[in-house]
Amino acid sequence: MRDQHCHILWGVDDGAATWDDTLAMLAAAKEAGVDRMVCTPHLRWDDFDEGVVRSRFAQFKEHSADAGVTAELGFEVYYKTLLKRGLDCAPRYCLDGTNQLLLEFNSGGEIPFGWEQTVDKLRNVYGLDVTIAHPERYSTAWKDFDAVYQLKDAGCSLQVSAMDLEGGFLSKPTKVAKRMMKEGLCDALVSDAHRAEHYARFAKMTSRFGTP
Q1: CA–CA separation, 41 and 22 (whole Å)
Q2: So what's the pLDDT on residue 211?
Q3: Residues 164 and 177: beta-carbon distance below 8 Å
Q4: What is the pLDDT along the chain (212 residues), one digit of tens a residue?
Q5: For residue 163, which phi and psi values (nearest 5 degrees)?
Q6: Taking the mean position of all CA atoms in its chain, how far away is CA 34?
Q7: How far is CA 164 from CA 62, 66, 108, 180, in A?
Q8: 28-43 burial by CB neighbour count: b if 16+ within 10 A, else e?
Q9: Is residue 37 classed as helix, strand or coil in its secondary structure?
Q10: How far, in Å, CA of 44 to CA of 30, rounded?
């Protein structure tokens, strides 16, 4: 099974803090049935260091291969950071060897005005395939589920984070996530794991909902 979104690289974002945390996450991922994973560190904050990310990924990739797990490197690119850096840099942060860009908006916030024009440029000027991380976490989708269909109609692929399927009936992200699964709008169910225990939840949800 391939996990297309996780924060397993240590000390580069709000995921694994240490190498030991990384090893614990790797063991938990294997236990959950993962044999391929895309490492997607956040490209969001000012202290982002691409050199450190790539160096640590190279170390992790070698170790994970010995453990029987194939690792790939992508980035979870924050929309406002991408605009600040300029769209010209977007291809650099695609999943290695592909034109797939993982884009996130602000969790709990609205999908920003003008996103359609940005996605159109990324797709038609830069030739990228845009994937949106966890649409279920954006307040725009809580208020009007049609926002999810608008993302789809714009040509975006959509990920659902497994942990968002576990909330109670009052959870707005859970309500949207379950409806996305029901209506076939999820292109990838992902762990979005930040620590080892998240993989048990990923296994539970993939068993329940399958992997699109």
Answers
A1: 13
A2: 81
A3: yes
A4: 999 999 999 999 999 999 999 999 999 999 999 999 999 999 999 899 999 999 999 999 999 999 999 999 999 999 999 999 999 999 999 999 999 999 999 999 999 999 999 999 999 999 999 999 999 999 999 999 999 999 999 999 999 999 999 988 899 999 999 999 999 999 999 999 999 999 999 999 999 988 87
A5: -65, -25
A6: 16
A7: 31, 31, 13, 11
A8: bbbebebeebbbbbbb
A9: strand
A10: 28
Residue of 91, 83, 15, 6 lying closest to 40 (CA atoms): 6
**DSSP string of 166-193, one letter each residue:** SS-TT-HHHHHHHHHHHTT--SEEE--B
pLDDT at 71 (0 to 100) = 98
Closest of 49, 63, 38 to residue 193, by C-alpha: 38
**Residue 108 CB burial class (10 angstroms; 0-12, 13-18, ≥19):** exposed
Helices (H), the chain: 19-31, 50-66, 79-85, 115-124, 139-143, 146-153, 172-182, 198-209
Question: Which tokens sit at 34?
Answer: 């993962």
**For residues 136 and 173, is the Cβ–Cβ distance under 8 A?**
yes
Residue type for position 51 = G
Find the distance separating the first CA and the last CA of the chain, reported in whole Å.
11
